[in-house]
Amino acid sequence: MTGGEAQPPHRRFDPLADEWVLVSAGRTRRPWRGEGGAAEPPRAPLRDPDCYLCPGAARAGGTRNPEYDGPWVFANDFPALRPDAVNGQPSAHPLLRRDPQAGECRVLCYAPRHDLTLANLPLADARRVVDAWAGQVAELSSRYAWVQVFENRGEMMGASNPHPHGQVWASSTLPNTAVSEDRTQAAHLAQTGRSLLVAYAEVETEAGERVVLATDHWLVVVPFWARWPFETMVLPRRAVQRLPDLTDAERDDLADVMGRLLRRCDHLFGVPFPYSMGWHGASGTADAPHWQLHLHVYPPLLRSATVRKHMVGYELLANVQRDLPPEEAAGRLAAQPEQRSTAAVAS
Ligand code: H2U
Ligand code: ZN
């Protein structure tokens, strides 16, 4: 379904964020010029002597990276959070609250090869990334309230380096998004007896029109309430609270699904697709039946490799608004090929 004109401006509710999204599909009917095609980045070297993430490279402060051959984690040299939380000053007034915040920031290099992306990693290597994500969550959630695994990809999203890598930030308190997702999922379970996102995955499977990919273990949809033009959400097919809870079969399948999804994104405008993405799952280690593990993928591109959605004006001051109906975005992503870049194939 493409139904731009068919849909008058309306708003859709995001029950996970407890927010509305304005969908004004009929506002403009812009010509579609992104015809897909091969997603070919300028050919990067296997190793870049100027890259601080490559094996053997020197980082800020002079530390030298080991000759790693798989996913490799190091403590961020410029951490936003530190393990020793010191408040410094007490709150001066109830309206000027400040609290200590402890944490750790790590960088996770997905693979030694500078020229590959998560989209194009060989399957076995992508699977090792899934294990690294789960391992980081398992280790850090015994000490911290929240572990955020995420990746910024591409200059447009502020990534400082094309070497395939993500980040892990662990914090002693729940960040805002975790607080609201915990609240909405708990309320939904209390009211309906069902997990919000398990029920949502069933609804999307049934509807079909926002499904991008469906496998035995995973479902990829453009959420009904998506904010970003080609936003997707990756959901397990069974109730899973946290990354470490994933079975071997689910991890294998996830590695494959991630690659397939991200290559489709790359093919959409014929460029390595920029995005921010990250995992949300239950905090801590206690049973949390209201929580369903999920991955949010937020890509900024709207109409071409260079025309992006800006979250400005009305979005900042009032409400997120989108023109492209989520159903149309899902249809375009579902129609993309999944072939690898020639750099990956040639390796
Ligand atoms: P981004 O590309 O998403 O910015 O992640 C790279 C991280 O690497 C960034 O958080 C860190 C930056 O602080 N970094 C180091 O830890 N050491 C360095 O020598 C350079 C960059
Ligand atoms: Zn590199």
Summarize the structure.
The chain is α+β, with helices and mostly antiparallel strands and 347 residues long. 25% of the residues lie in helices and 18% in strands.
Question: Can you describe what's shown?
Answer:
By secondary structure, the chain is an alpha+beta fold. The protein has one domain: HIT family, subunit A (2-Layer Sandwich). 25% of the residues lie in helices and 18% in strands. It contains 7 helices and 12 strands. It has helices at 123-140, 176-192, 196-207, 248-269, 313-317, 326-334, 342-346; strands spanning 10-14, 19-23, 72-75, 103-109, 146-153, 165-171, 211-214, 218-221, 232-236, 275-280, 294-298, 320-322. A 9-stranded antiparallel beta sheet has the order 3-4-6-5-10-11-9-8-7, sandwiched between helices. A 3-stranded mixed beta sheet has the order 1-2-12. A hairpin with a 4-residue loop joins strand 1 and strand 2. Helix 1 (123-140) packs across helix 4. The longest helix is centred in the C-terminal third of the chain and has 22 residues, at 248-269. 40% of the residues are buried. The model is unreliable at 32-38 (pLDDT under 50). The chain binds 5,6-dihydrouridine-5'-monophosphate (H2U) and zinc ion. Zinc ion binds next to loops.
